[in-house]
Structure formats: structure tokens, C-alpha cells
Amino acid sequence: MYVDIMEALPKCVFPKDIRCLGLNFLKRKCQAGITTMAVSTNGDIRPCTHNPQVYGNIFEENLSNVWEKMFDWRNGSYIPKDCKKCRVLNICLGGCRMTAKAYDMMGRQSSKDPWMLKPLRNDDFKEKNVNFDFSKKSIIRFSKKFQFRREGDGYLIHSAKNKILVINTEFFALVKYLEKVDEVRLDKLANRSNISFNDRNFQKIIKLLLRNKFISLNKQQEGGQNV
């Protein structure tokens, strides 16, 4: 049976035996003002449908200007202090900010979500441990179905499978190159980007792209190695 939750609940509210299952809904987090916004029928723009604060109107302002007004939602200003100690903050963000505001006596968006229990320790959350075997001669294919936009000092890329990554300008150039080719060998990709195949950051971005299914390994790849 498929079970999902639309609400962005703090991950610490779930028992450890549930957190260790690696279910998709455990990775759901609030994207208000981070990757999404809500536009009302009259054109009013808000970070999400639950938020009454209007940041602008699509009929009166440029959408990118209104988006910049929501920067506080992206710079961590509304993350509760206790949540900043949590090791899974990046896949939780402290739950729903509007729920937190509704239950806070002062009406603060940076207050704790009422479902928040405690910051999770290193042994409190088990993510799926997926190993990808690839070598210099491995051939990768890139998913053509993705969108991107400039975000701060880097880029946000979004796939058709609702996967989202934020990468720096250097590696965005690599992604844009992949978009133009059907497949490429990893050592040639590294050379083209003036990066060593053994470069730690190069290895990291390849694994990140694989894990989030932006790229896939060709089954005909030659001689993989565990990285």
C-alpha cells in the first residue's frame, strides 16, 4: 500500500522504526518561498497557500522582483534555533512555518513547529544507502527533462521526477553540457570541464546526479569501481 503525507511534518515526530524505512514522505519538506510560490486568482503572490502575507501582484510587478522579496524564506531566517542542530535539517527544514506561527504566542514564523520533538542525532535517522559503481570509462546518459533557474551564487535544477538540486556555477556548466549530448564517458567529461576525474567535488556531483536520477549509467559501461 502506498502511503504519503502532503504536510511538511518535522521528521523527529516519527518513531525511529518508521524513520529507518527510508520512505519518500519522510523527505517531504516545506518549499514555500524556496522553490515554490502561490498565485491567487487576483494575482496576489504569497510563499504558500497557507500564508496570508502578500509579497506582490503578478499583474503589477515582475515575478522575479517579487521572488527576491521572499529571500528570507531561502536564507534560513525562519528555521527554528533548535532545528539548526539537527543532522536532517536539509530534508526537514523544521516543519511547516505557518503551523509554527499559528501555535506561537507571538505569532513568529521562526518558532518551533508544535510537532517538533528534538534535534535528531547521527544514529536517529537512516537514509537509503545506495552505492554507485563507476570508473573513468563509465558512460553516463543525462535526463533531458529538467528545468533550471539562477538562485543566489548558483543554480537550482528541477527534474520531471520532482527532484531538486542546488549547484554552483562551475558544475552548472557541466550540467548544461550534458544536456547537449546523448552520452559521454566520465573521464572525457572531467577533462572537458578542466577537472580531474579523481577530484572530490567532481565525484560528489556525479554521485549526487546519479542519486537524484538526473543521470544514469549506461549498462554497457566498462569496469566500474566503488566510489
Major sheet characteristics: 3 strands, antiparallel
Q: Could you give the distance between the termini?
A: 34 Å
Radius of gyration: 20 Å
Uncertain regions: pLDDT < 50 for 5+ in a row? Answer: 221-227
Mean pLDDT: 81
Structural summary, described in words:
The chain is α+β, with helices and mostly antiparallel strands and 227 residues long. It folds into two domains: 11-124, no CATH class; 139-218, Outer Surface Protein A, domain 3 (Alpha-Beta Complex). It is built from six helices and nine strands. The strands form three sheets. A three-stranded antiparallel beta sheet has the order 1-2-3, with no helix packed on it. It has a three-stranded antiparallel beta sheet with strand order 8-4-9. Strands 5-6-7 form a three-stranded antiparallel beta sheet. A hairpin with a 2-residue loop joins strand 5 and strand 6 (154-159). The relative contact order is 0.13. Mean pLDDT is 81; it is low at 221-227.
